[in-house]
Amino acid sequence: MTTVAAYAAPAAKAPLERTTIERRAVREHDVLIDIKFAGICHSDIHQAQEGWGEAIFPMVPGHEIAGIVSEVGPGVTKYQVGDRVGVGCLVDSCRECENCLAGREQFCLNGSVGTYNAIGKDGEPTYGGYSEKVVVDENFVVRIPEGLALDEAAPLLCAGITTYSPLKRWGAAPGKKVAVIGLGGLGHMAVKIAHALGAEVTVLSQSLRKKDDGLKLGADHYYATSDPKTFEELVGSFDLIVSTVSAPLDFGAYLGLLKTDGALVNVGAPEEPIALNLFSLIGGNKTLAGSMIGGIAETQEMLDFCAAHGIGSEIEVISASEINEAYKRVVNSDVRYRFVIDTATI
To answer: What's the pLDDT tens digit per position in 205-214?
Structure first.
């Protein structure tokens, strides 16, 4: 066991505070990672505040982890000391079920193990990236290519894969029209990746205040959803809409913006249920879908794609003492576009 410093929420809705946690000794197939940077995801806030249901405390959030390998177990074959690596939302799964064997560990039929706010197979709670070090099985570690700076790569481990996966699955490509709802931590990555995939990209945001940013990030068009004319002008325009927001939307209105056979894919996770008139789906043979991160192999594919296209996250690096203030700013959409903790400050 190794004692390391971390920032933890001692209870639901409580401010995060500096503490120490125990990391397990390195096992046969484990990798010890010196964490250099940890992104702040809106889901960290949902879980620390129990917005998604009962949680485990004390909680050390963080599933956008970038660092350097400092020790490997005797059976490790994929990594060596000094490698640049990342850890996303998962640290284990059964590895035997249909989904795991298909490389979709996030849908493990026997229950995947989250990087934090979960119970590992050893019966111990998992603690995330707001800490100095982490020990992870090599099969749940990914390689960060040399072309990506570690601080800009950290948010790719959640925000990057969360948007890359549905864009690939639903066919974002040259000749396709893709809309992204919301230009935040997820949305700005969706714009960058959809643009790199060759699609014509439109941002649908509440206001036009981030329009210049959106166009710089790769959007071709930018509309304010607070303007009713937007929904009149864009009827039947898109092959694919990716919703990245965590607020309940008028999904019927957005489904009206799809072409026949179009898809609206939700990656945001509002805490409240939504209402939907199914005629908005039936008329036009449309799809309302969800998508949740990606498997380990697809996460590596995303990192390699981002490196090849020079895509990192737009970040604001903060010290650990600023985490609570950063949480407030995320809730108020006051970040462009992802906070990343310099873990040397923990």
So the answer is: 999 999 999 9
